[in-house]
């Protein structure tokens, strides 16, 4: 669910979990430690995506499901693999 418009559903990649420190892309702070109860999400098209780089950490309460497949358009049908782009890995994680 969009943190700016509860009527809108958005699909984004989870980049960082609570306690992680992430280098942002155009957010007001260059580095952010994701607060307790939040995640950092990003779209696949940096610079053209309405994501945490625009609105900051997202409350876990807005997370409703996990995307597992691409169904549309049919030419892109595929199962999604859990992966984090190497350049987007957090610098530090409280889970370590």
UniProtKB/TrEMBL annotation:
Heterodimer of 2 subunits, IMMPL1 and IMMPL2. PROSITE patterns: SPASE_I_3. It comes from the Eukaryota. This is Mitochondrial inner membrane protease subunit 2. Belongs to the peptidase S26 family. IMP2 subfamily. One of its GO terms (cellular component) is mitochondrial inner membrane peptidase complex. It is a single-pass membrane protein. The gene is IMMP2L. It comes from Gopherus evgoodei (Goodes thornscrub tortoise). Keywords: Hydrolase, Membrane, Mitochondrion, Mitochondrion inner membrane, Protease, Transmembrane, Transmembrane helix. InterPro entries: IMP2, LexA/Signal_pep-like_sf, Pept_S26A_signal_pept_1, Pept_S26A_signal_pept_1_CS, Peptidase_S26. CDD domains: S26_SPase_I. SUPFAM superfamilies: LexA/Signal peptidase (SSF51306). Residues 28-72 form the Peptidase S26 domain. It is found in: Mitochondrion inner membrane. Its main location: mitochondrion. The lineage of its organism: Eukaryota, Metazoa, Chordata, Craniata, Vertebrata. One of its GO terms (biological process) is signal peptide processing. GO terms for molecular function: serine-type endopeptidase activity.
């Amino acid at each position: 669910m969009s943190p700016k418009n509860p009527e809108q559903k958005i699909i984004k990649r989870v980049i960082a979990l609570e306690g992680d420190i992430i280098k942002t892309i155009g957010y007001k702070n260059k580095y952010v430690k994701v607060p307790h109860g939040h995640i950092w999400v990003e779209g696949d098209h940096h610079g053209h995506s309405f994501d945490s780089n625009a609105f900051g950490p997202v409350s876990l309460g807005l997370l409703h499901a996990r995307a597992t497949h691409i169904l549309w358009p049919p030419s892109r049908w595929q199962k999604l693999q859990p992966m984090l782009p190497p350049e987007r890995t957090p610098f530090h994680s409280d889970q370590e």
